[in-house]
Structures are given as C-alpha cells and as structure tokens.
TrEMBL record:
It comes from the Bacteria. The chain crosses the membrane at residues 46-64, 70-89, 126-147. This is Uncharacterized protein. Keywords: Membrane, Transmembrane, Transmembrane helix.
Amino acid sequence: MMEDELIKIWQSSPNQERAKFEKSRLMLDVQSTLDHLHKKIAYRDAMEQIAVVVGIPIFAYYAYHIPFVLTKIASVLIIFWGVFVIIRIRSAKKHKPSAFTETYLEYLYKTREYLKIQKRLLDSVLYWYILPAMTLLFLFTLGPGIAGRLPRIVKMTAGNVAIAVATYLLNKSAVKKQLMPRLEKIDALIEVMEKS
C-alpha cells in the first residue's frame, strides 16, 4: 500500500524533482560501493605490507647466515623487492581522494583517477610483482645447487608458478568485477551531475 502511494507521488512529481531524486539515489549507491572498495584496497595493502615487514628480517637472516652466494644475493634482492612493493602500493594510495575537502563533483573526478591508478596497478601486476618474485625465489632455491635436489626444485617451482597464476587471475578478476563496474557508475554519475 505504502509502496503504491510512493510510486504515484513519484509519477506525479515534476521532471526536475525526479532528476534530483535519481541523482541523489545514484550518489548514495556510488558512495556505498566506493566505501566497500576502499576497505578492500586498505585490507589488501595492509596484508602486503605485513608480509614485507615479516619477510625482511627472515631474508636478512638468510642473507647473513646461509653460506651459498646465490642464496645470499637472492635474499638481499628479495628485501629490495619487498621495499619496492611497499613504495608502489603507498604511491598509489596517495591519490585516494578525501570526501571532506572538495565538492562532490571534484571528489568523483579524483575518485575516478584513483580507481584508474588502482586498475593500472592491478593490470601490470605481472611485471612489477609476479615475475620479480618468481625469479628471485627461483634463484634463492638454486643457491645450494641442483645436485640431488632436482625433484624438490621442480616441486617448488611448480608451486611458485601455481601461486603466480592464481595471483594473476585474482587481480584480473578484481579489475573486471570490482573496479570496472565502479568506474562505470562514477562515469554515469559525473555525466548526470555535469548536465544538472
């Protein structure tokens, strides 16, 4: 009953009021999905940073205590790679917009740019994240030599490849299912707001 009355009021209202309602409804929808996405990105970034903070002392220990030169070199390079990952993630985070300092349209422009930066970050994950990690872990594994360890090296390499493929696919899925729909909603809202 109440729903029918609301529909009648909606249908009898002037077009200008309908446009305002549509705009505010779209704004609330976009803001809700952005809040959820920002939480996911913050969680992902925190997990990456924790992994690096935990990994640095471990690989520093390996670099100091393990006698194999290739393992020492790989350990030091893994530390540098971990620091690079943190820098890359934090540099993307710098572009996160603040909803409190701009007009809503400026906030949407900045949010769209931030999401595009996140999309580029995830689209290029193969080159700055996966391939360096796989290469360095492979060098680390080869440190003690191959003699008598070939089956173990093959298993570890196969495990690393499986993790790399899963990481790549998860990032591509995140772009397709999380970032692209939000970018489309933001574009639609920007278009509506620019017309009004």
